[in-house]
Design a protein that fits this description.
By secondary structure, the protein is an alpha+beta fold. The chain contains 9 helices and 11 strands.
């Protein structure tokens, strides 16, 4: 096994060095010709020009080989980043129990395709459950908390009959992650002070359940409320907010807010605060509510693409924070109450027989 690994490692090193083989060989020949050939020692102008051309060719070859290697490494890194995003922030199913869904994320970190925002939607026996959240900060440093919260949600959403149990599981998963980070980043172990102190890390999130009749159950942990699109654009009430996860312990009794509905034909837009806090060059905030007022009946996927395009145009492509959108449209058919068929009467009760 060890010999096989060493052979594979050696073969990998040879493949990485292959682009440099030709220019390096040509350079060896040029140096040998310069110092070993009597003709190369002549001081005439033609010989100097020839020597300069030879060494210039060697230098250009080495630069081209190095550039080709860097381009290949960048392509591999991008492929890994795309695969990571598909695992962490995988696109939600197009339909879940009569709901049409679409989601998208923009990272504020240059060159990154994942960041500190998270979202997920799953169909469970208890209804369609969704989560959208925002880890303090953005970029690669927030990925650990994203993994902890999403991994816990994908299991707890199916296991817990009550939505409060799901939220409790998310809190415990984040606490475990923070404890492990604190242990790994302790100066006695890492040797230096942590760049991102764990004590300052927390997650705001919105945990939501859409039941079969369109009734919503919502927990809001310090996250911006969603928008509901129907006859117009309105901010959906989500009840009194709870503290973000990781700041304070959750209350002993968790009761979701159930005073809102998503009726057939209506659309719900869940978002992170980066969408409303994005600014242009003059410091003006992005008007998300205005951007959401698009054409009637707009598909969720088209809405996500359009809002992302307007965001990038507003900021000139320079986002200050990660932005995530999760759009849900209720396409369930409302069945009206059917009147009784004509000619059919309710049977009268039979008269009681005399005793």
């Amino acid at each position: 096994m060890i010999r096989t690994r060493s052979l594979v490692s050696g073969g990998s090193r040879l493949r990485r060095m292959a682009p440099f083989a030709f220019p390096a060989g040509w350079g060896v020949i040029a140096v040998a010709w310069k110092f070993g050939c009597p003709l190369a020692r002549h001081q005439g102008l033609p010989m100097r020009v020839t020597t300069g051309v030879v060494f210039l060719t060697v230098g250009i070859g080495l630069l081209v080989a190095a550039r080709r290697r860097l381009v290949r490494e960048l392509a591999r890194a991008r492929a890994v980043a795309v695969a990571t995003q598909q695992v962490l922030l995988r696109p939600p199913p197009a339909r879940l129990h009569g709901l049409v869904l679409a989601a998208g994320q923009l990272s504020a970190s240059r060159g990154a395709t994942v960041g500190g925002d998270l979202y997920e939607a799953v169909a469970t026996p208890h209804g369609v459950r969704m989560v959208i959240g925002d880890v303090r900060g953005h970029g690669l440093a927030a990925l650990g908390a994203v993994v902890a919260v999403l991994g816990s949600f994908r299991e707890a959403a199916h296991d817990e009959p009550e939505l409060g149990g799901v939220l409790r599981r998310l809190e415990r998963a984040l606490e475990r992650h923070l404890r492990e980070r604190a242990r790994d980043e302790h100066p006695a172990r890492a040797g230096t002070a942590p760049e991102h102190p764990v004590a300052e890390e927390f997650v705001t999130l919105l945990l939501l359940e859409v039941r079969s009749d369109g009734r919503l159950a919502v927990f809001n942990c310090g996250h911006p409320g969603p928008y509901r699109l129907g006859a117009g654009v309105e901010r959906l009430p989500v009840g009194e907010p709870l503290p973000p996860l990781g700041v304070l312990p959750l209350p002993a009794v968790l009761t979701p807010y159930t005073g809102a509905r998503l009726m057939p034909g209506e659309t719900l837009v869940l978002h992170t605060d980066g969408a409303e806090e994005a600014r242009d060059a003059r410091g003006r905030f992005f008007r998300l509510d205005t951007a959401l007022a698009g054409p009637p009946g707009e598909a969720p996927a088209a809405l996500v693409r359009r809002v992302h395009t307007e965001l990038l145009h507003h900021t000139g492509g320079r986002l200050g924070d990660d932005v995530a959108l999760l759009v849900v449209r209720n396409d369930r058919v409302r069945v009206p109450a059917q009147p009784a068929e004509p000619g059919l009467r309710r049977p009268r009760p039979a008269p009681s027989s005399p005793r």
